[in-house]
């Protein structure tokens, strides 16, 4: 009976020890998992490294921690550290470091007498004991170094811990590298977006500069005849004032009504009121038309320059964008240019009208520059279904049902000089131009392509030398239930 009791006690004690060990391992696993989450949640390289070193501190205590990576034969360099004094320090690979690189974690009782530290005496003031732990990084062995201020601090227990968590250390550092690459990729993406935005704005300003003289002329013309009309109106005002003053005197007089009517009629004829009123009517209508023309031009400019990229609800009218763009380019259109418009009724499309106007102005300017005498510019808008889109843009993702079933398009066709077949594949590349040196930056069509892509659309081109060119831009029509 006693033997059975002892066995039960031993088994119970064993169960308690196993439970304690399991609980300790669970807590350790939770801690490491939480640490890994903290590492991967970092949004900057600095935070990433700080979180990584915090995780390492939960495994092995340290005063300073840093990582050595290979630089040149016989030397390693510190790439990251908790103490900035260690950064970029150069380390000769002595026997201790070489043994570590062969795969053995090593505890150094007193680092101050180790050859690798001899040339770094200013760092030994706060460092006595050292623990070196090897790990594989990009198929090369690097070393993570734990430093303590007390001689003999690191023992075989710490060496065993380092060996035990070596795989975890490697996985952690691998995750850090992956996160760093992701952060770098995000940074490059943001920088690229900033550069593209700057280029789009610069191209827009260049287009405004190109259009400025013509727009000023288009505004000055109606303003000139409005001003002239007001001069004429100013000339009529004294006559009107005299007529009304004398009419008022007649009406207040004691004369019989018949006599008053005769005198008023005489005044009406004397000041030629009938002709004056006809002129005033004409002046009013002409001035209204002139002001409306100025308002239309200003609205077109506002539509061209507006920036509502942050407005997710922004929509545009493709036909209105065509009208605005043509209005801005009116002064650039010579009398010899014949413009034909075939605009079908379209629903509102999602996106920035300013971007669409910039696209259309760029394409129309190119078309006008490509044509000489007997120039014909054709602008067409309408609908395309999925098969037509697939034929027009064979490389695009086009579905036969759902929100992308219908597309709106605008086609701009000229009868200019055309583009050689071997150059068609390059026209949307940055800095590529078919214009003579000094006449084109090679950014217009690249920016046009970028803007169309940002709007969720596609752009294609067909051309034949000495016959003409046609650009077709398509936009998805939002699905409405």
Account of the 3D structure:
- GO terms for molecular function: ATP binding; phosphorelay sensor kinase activity.
- The chain has 481 residues and is of the alpha+beta class.
- It folds into 3 domains: 2-183, GAF domain (Beta-Lactamase); 192-303; 309-476, 2-Layer Sandwich (Heat Shock Protein 90), CATH 3.30.565.10.
- The protein has 13 helices and 13 strands.
- The strands form 3 sheets. It has a 6-stranded antiparallel beta sheet with strand order 3-2-1-6-5-4, sandwiched between helices.
- A hairpin with a 2-residue loop joins strand 5 (129-137) and strand 6 (140-148).
- The chain is elongated.
- The N and C termini lie far apart (82 Å).
- The model is unreliable at 397-404 (pLDDT under 50).
């Amino acid at each position: 009976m006693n033997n059975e009791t002892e066995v039960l006690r031993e088994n119970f004690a064993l169960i308690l020890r196993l439970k304690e060990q399991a609980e300790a391992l669970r807590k350790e696993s939770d801690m490491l998992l939480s640490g890994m989450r903290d590492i991967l949640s970092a949004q900057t390289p600095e935070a990433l490294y700080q979180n990584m070193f915090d995780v390492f501190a939960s495994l092995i205590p340290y005063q300073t921690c840093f990582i050595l990576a290979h630089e040149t034969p016989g030397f390693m360099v510190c790439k990251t550290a908790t103490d900035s004094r260690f950064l970029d320090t150069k380390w000769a690979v002595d026997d201790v470091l070489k043994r570590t690189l062969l795969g053995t974690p090593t505890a150094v009782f007193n680092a101050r007498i180790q050859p690798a530290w001899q040339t770094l005496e200013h760092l030994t003031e706060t460092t006595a004991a050292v623990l070196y732990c090897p790990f594989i990084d990009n198929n090369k062995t690097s070393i993570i170094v734990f430093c303590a201020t007390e001689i003999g601090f690191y023992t075989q227990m710490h060496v065993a811990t380092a060996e035990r968590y070596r795989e975890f250390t490697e996985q952690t550092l691998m995750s850090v590298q992956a996160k760093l690459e992701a952060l770098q990729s995000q940074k490059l993406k943001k920088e690229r977006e900033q550069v593209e935005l700057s280029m789009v704005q610069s191209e827009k300003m260049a287009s405004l500069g190109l259009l400025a003289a013509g727009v000023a002329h288009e505004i000055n013309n109606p303003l000139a005849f409005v001003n002239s009309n007001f001069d004429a109106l100013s000339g009529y005002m004294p006559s009107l004032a005299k007529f009304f003053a004398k009419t008022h005197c007649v009406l207040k007089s004691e004369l019989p009504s018949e006599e008053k009517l005769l005198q008023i009629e005489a005044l009406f004829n004397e000041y030629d009121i009938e002709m004056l009123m006809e002129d005033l009517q004409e002046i009013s209508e002409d001035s209204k038309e002139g002001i409306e023309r100025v308002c239309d031009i200003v609205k077109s400019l506002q539509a061209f320059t507006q920036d509502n990229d942050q407005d997710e609800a922004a929509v545009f009218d493709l036909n209105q964008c065509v009208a605005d763009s043509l209005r801005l380019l009116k002064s650039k259109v010579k009398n010899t240019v014949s413009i034909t418009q075939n605009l079908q009724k379209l629903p509102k499309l999602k996106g920035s009208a300013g971007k669409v106007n910039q696209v259309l102005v760029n394409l129309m300017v190119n078309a006008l520059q490509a044509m000489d005498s007997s120039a014909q510019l054709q602008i067409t808008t309408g609908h395309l279904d999925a098969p037509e889109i697939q034929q027009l843009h064979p490389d695009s993702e086009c579905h036969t049902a759902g929100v992308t079933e219908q597309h709106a398009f605008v086609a701009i066709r000229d009868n200019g000089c055309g583009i050689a077949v071997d150059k068609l594949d390059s026209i949307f590349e940055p800095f590529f131009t078919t214009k003579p040196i000094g006449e084109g930056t090679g950014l217009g069509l690249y920016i046009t392509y970028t803007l169309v892509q940002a709007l969720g659309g596609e752009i294609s081109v067909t051309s034949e030398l000495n016959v003409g060119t046609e650009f077709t831009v398509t936009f998805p029509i939002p699905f409405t239930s």
